[in-house]
User: Fold these one by one.
Assistant:
Number 1:
Amino acid sequence: MRFRAAVEERLERFGLQVAPAKTVVRCFDRTLAQGNGRPRQRPETFTFLGFTHFLAKTRRGGWHVGRTPSVQSRERFLRRIAVWLKANRHRPVREQQAYLRRALNGYYQYFGLRLCLARLSGVHQRVRWLWKRALQRRSQRARRRTDWATLHAAPWFQLPQPRLTQTWV
């Protein structure tokens, strides 16, 4: 509570106020998780700027704040991709590939923090699946094709692989 009062006092000097409806104090302390083998109480998590922040244990036994893309931000991105693919499935595949490359690279740039690689890989796979489904819906015969397995090796179907842009914070 002292911290909140200090922040409110400092913001008042600049003519700003803390919105009580948008402000909450979370218990985010490593001492809650330190017990005899089992945590006494699970530390809270919170979502901010598209990331879910949580308390994680390092390999050496220390503690740090971990961040992964939140479920809402991932689903919002995938919904936007699905809507674009549905509206532009008639376009040439190279144009679709260019758009998806730009979108994925932007996503990787923002969410490419450590501990996020598994989530980024999931997004990559879902985008490939959405694109494949959009291509299948271009014609009635495309759904019955048996060579969709070779599609993943086609050069025009390649999308950028997930990568970490910020390895440590």
Number 2:
Amino acid sequence: MKWSTLDDLKSVTIGVVDGYLNTEKFDSMVAAKQLKVDTAPDDATNIAKVANKRFPIAGIDQNVLRYLLKNDKTSQAYQDALQFNSKLLERKMLFICFKKGPDGEK
């Protein structure tokens, strides 16, 4: 599916994970009912929903998709049915926290 702005997605239902934050603009458009979403408890459920044509797209991190398609038995069945869209909503930073102390310093 080709899209340039979030406005291009107003006509489709988008799979999201309940409780996840997406981008500020995406989430505000969902809150304003400008984007239609279908919530799932986890990314693997959304993978199955997209693969089974329940809706055409779902928001997911590329690394999470890659991991689930390789390691999650249910998601593996859909490996050939899905592709990652090259247009990103946002590039997010990822941070790691360590316990204070000598082990954390290592």
